[in-house]
Design goal:
Elements: E1 5-10, H1 13-21, E2 30-35, E3 43-48, H2 50-54, H3 63-69, E4 76-79, H4 82-97, E5 102-105, E6 110-114, H5 123-141, E7 145-150, H6 153-163, E8 168-170, H7 176-180, H8 193-201, H9 207-212, H10 215-222, H11 224-234, E9 250-261, H12 264-269, H13 272-284, E10 287-298, E11 303-314, H14 321-334, E12 339-347, E13 350-351, H15 354-361
Parallel strand pairs: 2-4, 7-8
Antiparallel strand pairs: 1-6, 1-7, 2-3, 5-6, 9-12, 10-11, 10-12, 10-13
Helix pairs in contact: 4-5, 10-11
The structure holds a DNA duplex.
Length: about 375
DNA sequence: GTATGCTTTCGGC
DNA sequence: TTACGGCCGAAAGCATAC
């Protein structure tokens, strides 16, 4: 059975939400920014609307540089409000979910869906559903999105990329290679700059070239699993299923220090608010963790982590304070540079499901 | 050899 | 000229057990 897979992507999401909230800014360059608080304009652009992109402003760009690019162009620089976008995202995901068989959220502004059953394998019928989803989101939230349909997640993702902004791209199984063969490998889902560079060294630049590449050669450079995935994805044949996401697998909080430090204790002191936030997340989600990590981003912007896994689940972050201090001191010992940003990650999570505990007690004396 | 568990890094948005 | 966040999930890399 040929699958019918879709990918939906909200256009320049954070900035578009801001435009909907304040339509008078439409037509001007808009950049939604993360201000780190270190200096007045330290931080990066999270999302820019298309007007701002015309001037070369894009995600991850330092705010000061973006401001320079937009000088004299009447720009709007907006502080990112993540909870606002989360609320909008949640409503949109439910709208979309009601039209498809399965919806897999893949970040705050995108999702994969499976329409194999709903469309009975027919791409035309799936295209009608996709148009309906786009309409519903436009009417309900005034937001535009891009949708791609294809025979696999990798193809659907490429299709939605090519539909940006605001379009619908349908790639039938027959047209898969014609559609993506000439695209660069870097366009493939899961292929970042690093992988592109390695592939380049192997003389592989396009998806068609990757599709023809020798799998055992790829294995030497990427390991078995990634090599098989790359090859399958390039052939439009990856069988990665669309699955409803379960609970998050990690929580983390990371902050930028006012000034760099080599002092682990100083780093810890700056993290009390982040730790409190993580503690309340554990409580509100009735979740425990087993792995605790200290994260440091050094002056040269490289990332270092040290972690510790406990034998039993930990419900209260405060009882492992000493362990955290230990991890940070390990980091400061191994790092030959200063900390610029520091953070805490909790992973290996498990939820205390009330239903499960009830079930456990059934039949107990 | 395969399975499993833990640590660290990577890539995406 | 330089400039620089805060998350997430996945998997590579390594060790150990069988």
């Amino acid at each position: 059975m040929v699958r019918v897979i879709g990918h939906i992507d909200l256009d320049y999401f954070f900035a578009q939400v801001e435009e909907v909230e304040n339509p008078s800014i439409k037509g001007r360059p808009v950049a939604v920014c993360v201000f780190s608080g270190r200096t007045k304009d330290s931080g990066v652009v999270s999302t820019a609307n298309y007007k701002a992109r015309e001037f070369g402003v894009k995600s991850g760009m330092p705010i000061v540089l973006a401001k320079r690019r937009l000088e004299g162009r009447d720009p709007i620089m907006i502080r990112m409000e993540i909870t606002k976008y989360e609320a909008v995202s949640e409503r949109i995901m439910e709208l979309a979910r009601s039209h498809v068989d399965i919806l897999e959220e893949a970040g705050i502004d995108e999702a994969f869906f499976d329409l194999t059953i709903g469309s009975r394998g027919d791409f035309n019928s799936a295209a009608s559903v996709a148009r309906k989803i786009k309409e519903t989101i436009l009417e309900g939230e005034r937001l535009t999105c891009s949708v791609g349909l294809g025979r696999s997640k990798a193809v659907a993702k490429l299709a939605s990329d090519s539909a940006k902004p605001g379009g619908l791209m349908v790639v039938s199984p027959d047209s898969t290679m014609a559609f993506m063969g000439s695209l660069n490998v870097g366009n493939l889902y899961g292929v970042g700059p690093k992988t592109v560079k390695t592939l380049e060294g192997l003389g592989i630049g396009t998806i068609a070239e990757l599709a023809r590449a020798d799998v055992s050669l790829l294995q030497d450079y990427f390991g078995r699993k990634l090599a098989l995935y790359l090859h399958a994805a390039a052939n439009g044949e990856d069988d990665d299923p669309v699955e409803e996401r379960q609970e998050p697998t990690q929580f983390s909080r990371i902050i930028t220090l006012k000034s760099d430090t080599t002092d682990a204790e100083e780093a810890m002191n700056q993290l009390t608010e982040a730790a409190d936030d993580l503690r309340s997340r554990l409580i509100s989600r009735k979740t425990s963790f087993r792995t605790l990590s200290a994260i440091a981003i050094l002056t040269n912007l490289s990332t270092k982590t040290r972690s510790k896994t406990f034998e039993t689940p930990i419900w209260d972050l405060s009882i492992v304070k000493n362990a955290l201090a230990d991890l940070f001191s390990q980091l400061s010992d191994s790092a030959d540079r200063e900390f610029r940003r520091v953070g805490i990650r909790l992973s290996d999570l498990s939820a205390n499901s009330d239903q499960k505990s009830l079930a456990e007690y059934v039949g107990e004396p």
